């Protein structure tokens, strides 16, 4: 198993060796370069599949082995990712660090902007709004714009206030309007029950007659903030980020959106339906405005019994209905607006954790504050593994600390009043480390609804540090739905 390492300095000789090796590999894969994706993807049918897979595996293995060194080189010369031998690494975004991807992303976005400016005359656009009606005024002002106008510089004027917008008013506008996106009066988003911090699309948003126009506006707004390199104080569920990136959702993603359904599905997967004597069909009861009805998950679902042989299909369809089908119209409207500014193929270089960091920024995490506000189960504060854990976490850079927080809580959002006020599904829920007695070969696992980390009793610091870092970077557990 590959263990990620912290970035390190490299000698000129080592850099030259790696560059030469990448050049050689690229010369082999050049005919396939437009068709090769990461090993998790399906190769294009336009190339020889055996050759493509061989080159793909060779390149991936090499990049994986030298991941920290390659990223260190790219930090010093990010231009390399666009034009020379290193360009092929964009086919393996999993191996690129977030800061490297972010620089590449913004450079590519500028290229898109330059092409558009050749077709359209770019001018600053004045946006006049009232503070007390900032969402409605902004919607009406911006609704009249062409798609290309959204790439222009916005010049914000708050009605009744003096002041020239040299950038400060634009930042303030982003801050204020972001809060209004989640205003219950618009019924667009609701708090996720599993963590009470992140937001999810309100499936009943249709109570607002303009909800689809609003969702398209919000999609454009968030894309515009990314385009302008402005951070927003907004955090969404993992499934929402995956929808933007066109990543398949997993059944674990429903935990924050519907903890009870998650527990039921997990129990179903881990136990024999026949032994339990369940009489479960491929349909589900839904309730809207106090009216209950039955919804079929597939044709004739009300007559199809769930068995151990087909229960994974049932879980798949249930999650699709809950996380996608019930909000399909709203989601499509949001994505239509978002992709008008940010190309789908470009944003896909990020994973869902990194997309949150791109939108909301890297947080400053006070490890000492987290340590003081941590509880332990079957460990104590003086346990050797706990001492190693805090040493390991302090060794992480800012990006990996943010990914750790995402891993254990479901979001990179730091509580405003410190970790003593960390929220869980039942209110304030301190971070908890529980001993995992199953195997020392397991990665640490997390229960985000309870802000809990299950930490195996690793035999030494090096193993704990590597396993923890791998878990935070990969966040891989369970199965994904195709």
Automatic annotation (TrEMBL):
Say yes or no: keyword Transferase present: yes
**Pfam families (alphabetical):** HECT
Named in its record, the pathway it takes part in is: Protein modification; protein ubiquitination
**Keyword Isomerase in record:** no
| Membrane-spanning residues | none
Which segments carry the region annotation Disordered?
24-47
Top-level enzyme category: transferase
Which InterPro entries does the record cross-reference, listed alphabetically?
A: E3_ubiq-protein_ligase, HECT_dom, Hect_E3_ubiquitin_ligase
Tell me which EC number(s) this protein carries: 2.3.2.26
**Family, per entry:** Belongs to the UPL family. TOM1/PTR1 subfamily.
PANTHER family, per the entry: E3 UBIQUITIN-PROTEIN LIGASE HUWE1, HECT DOMAIN UBIQUITIN-PROTEIN LIGASE
* Name of the molecule in the record: HECT-type E3 ubiquitin transferase
Q: What organism is this sequence from? A: Meloidogyne javanica
């Amino acid at each position: 198993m590959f263990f990620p390492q912290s970035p390190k300095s490299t000698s000129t000789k080592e850099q030259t060796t790696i560059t030469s090796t990448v050049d050689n590999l690229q010369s082999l894969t050049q005919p396939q370069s437009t068709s090769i994706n990461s090993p998790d993807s399906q190769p294009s049918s336009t190339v020889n599949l055996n050759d493509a897979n061989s080159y793909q595996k060779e390149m991936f293995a090499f990049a994986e082995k030298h991941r920290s060194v390659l990223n260190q080189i790219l930090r010093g010369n990010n231009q390399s990712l666009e034009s020379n031998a290193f360009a092929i690494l964009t086919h393996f975004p999993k191996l690129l660090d977030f800061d490297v991807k972010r620089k590449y992303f913004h450079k590519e976005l500028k290229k898109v902007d330059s092409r558009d400016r050749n077709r359209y005359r770019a001018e600053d656009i004045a946006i006049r709004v009232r503070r007390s009606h900032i969402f409605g005024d902004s919607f009406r002002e911006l609704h009249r714009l062409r798609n290309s106008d959204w790439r222009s510089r916005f010049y914000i004027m708050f009605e009744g206030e003096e002041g020239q917008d040299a950038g400060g008013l634009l930042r303030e506008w982003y801050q204020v309007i972001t809060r209004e996106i989640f205003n219950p009066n618009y019924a667009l988003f609701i708090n996720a029950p599993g963590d009470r911090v992140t937001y999810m699309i309100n499936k009943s948003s249709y109570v607002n007659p303009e909800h689809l126009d609003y969702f398209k506006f919000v999609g454009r707004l968030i894309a515009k903030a990314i385009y302008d390199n402005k951070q927003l104080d907004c955090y969404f569920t993992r499934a929402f980020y995956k929808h933007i990136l066109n990543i398949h959702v997993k059944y674990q993603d429903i935990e924050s959106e519907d903890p009870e359904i998650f527990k039921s599905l997990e129990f179903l997967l881990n136990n024999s339906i026949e032994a339990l004597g369940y009489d479960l069909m491929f349909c589900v009861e839904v309730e809207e405005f106090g009216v209950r009805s039955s919804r079929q998950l597939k044709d004739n679902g009300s007559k199809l019994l769930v068995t151990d042989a087909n229960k994974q299909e049932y879980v798949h369809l249930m999650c699709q209905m809950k996380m996608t089908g019930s909000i399909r119209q709203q989601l499509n409207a949001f994505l239509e607006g978002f992709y008008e500014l940010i190309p789908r193929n470009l944003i896909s270089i990020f994973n869902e954790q990194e997309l949150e960091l791109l939108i909301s920024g890297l947080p400053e995490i006070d490890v000492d504050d987290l340590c003081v506000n941590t509880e332990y189960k079957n460990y104590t504060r003086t346990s050797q593994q706990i001492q190693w854990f805090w040493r390991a976490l302090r060794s992480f850079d800012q990006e990996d600390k943010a990914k750790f927080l995402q891993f254990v809580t479901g979001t990179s959002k730091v509580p405003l009043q410190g970790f003593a006020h960390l929220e869980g599904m039942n209110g304030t829920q301190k971070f908890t480390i529980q001993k995992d007695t199953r195997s020392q070969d397991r990665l640490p696992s997390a229960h985000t609804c309870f802000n809990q980390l299950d930490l195996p009793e690793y035999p030494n610091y090096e193993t704990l540090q590597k396993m923890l870092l791998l878990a935070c970077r990969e966040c891989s557990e369970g199965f994904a739905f195709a």
